[in-house]
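Exercise: predict the fold of this chain.
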Amino acid sequence: MEASFQHANSQFRVDQAQNRRLAVLNPAAALEGDAPRLIDEWPLAPDLWNEVRHEIDARRMPGQFILSGSAIPADDATRHTGAGRISKIRMRPMVAQAVIS
């Protein structure tokens, strides 16, 4: 997740209660901010996926959003695959190693 924060110019953390409520009631508001916009823990408000897809279509520019989450949401027939718009990157936890010379 830290790498996501380093690449983002703005962020929206869905794991914060007030943000989760906003994401559910008004998903478009979660997308407002400088690009690339990090939407962290988006699976807590899965409707954000389709909202991001629509915003990508409207803006017609690459690199607008970074979606991150520690869980994979259940399949949903109403959620678009993201084909042609969203690329998935599998991230694994980093392990720090110290080199003593």
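Check your answer against the key: The chain is about 30% helix and 10% strand.
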